[in-house]
Design brief:
Protein name: Small ribosomal subunit protein uS4
CATH class of the largest domain: Mainly Alpha
Order of helices and strands: HHHHHHHEEEHEEH
Pfam families: Ribosomal_S4, S4
Family: Belongs to the universal ribosomal protein uS4 family.
Helix content: 40-55%
Subunit structure: Part of the 30S ribosomal subunit. Contacts protein S5. The interaction surface between S4 and S5 is involved in control of translational fidelity.
InterPro entries: Ribosomal_uS4 (IPR022801), Ribosomal_uS4_bac-type (IPR005709), Ribosomal_uS4_CS (IPR018079), Ribosomal_uS4_N (IPR001912), S4_RNA-bd (IPR002942), S4_RNA-bd_sf (IPR036986)
Length: about 200
């Protein structure tokens, strides 16, 4: 699956969840898209349910198929619960962390900020959205980008919500990954066990 660039509301309706953020389409049409969306749907197989969960995770974090498979392989090699480690690896991506800190209103917008070199990691510019952060790493807005309207508007609107694994200094526009998030701290509605079962086949 290439990175999705189509209608966001369509995907939100498919999963009946605001995958890309709040969606008015879900309020108006709480059924799947398509001609037969309102009709009865045949019972899904176990494989289909597992695949849907993986697709939901990929759309949520904006990760390609090969990237996702590589992250799962990395998670499966670590000691611990594979599904939780997979979510930790997804959460510690640079683009996701920029989004969680409130620097960008969405992961897609965070990806753009990283690609356009507005973000600094440990004092150096990093323009790789998939860059994996480690506990202790700092993420900051580049000095000359601090007045960027996209960033200031996002911080004013979304920068209030904080996550226990992140620290944020609003005056300096610097954040820090203090620890890997615990599963119960990650707000995404993803059943990671279904993904593990899919890859275990």
């Amino acid at each position: 699956m290439a990175r999705y660039r189509g209608p966001k509301a369509k995907i939100a309706r498919r999963f009946n969840e605001p995958i890309f953020g709040p969606s008015k389409a879900l309020q108006k049409k709480s059924y799947p898209p398509g001609q037969h969306g309102r009709g009865r749907r045949k019972k899904q197989s176990e494989y289909a349910i597992q695949l849907m969960e993986k697709q939901k995770a990929k759309y949520t974090y904006g990760v390609l198929e090969k990237q996702f498979a590589n992250l799962f392989d990395k998670a499966s090699r670590k000691s611990g619960i594979t599904g939780e480690i997979l979510l930790q690896l997804l959460e510690s991506r640079l683009d996701n962390t920029v989004f969680r800190l409130g620097i960008a209103p969405s992961r897609r917008a965070a990806r753009q900020l990283v690609l356009h070199k507005h973000i600094v990691v440990n004092g150096s510019i990093v323009n790789i959205p998939s860059f994996s952060l480690k506990p202790g790493d700092t993420v900051a807005v580049r000095e000359r980008s601090k007045s960027l309207e996209t960033i200031t508007d996002s911080l004013a609107t979304y920068g209030v919500k904080r996550f226990p694994w992140l620290e944020w200094d609003g005056s300096e526009m610097v954040g820090k990954l203090v620890a890997m998030p615990q599963r119960d701290e990650i707000p995404e509605n993803i059943n990671e066990q279904l993904i593990v079962e899919l890859y275990s086949k």
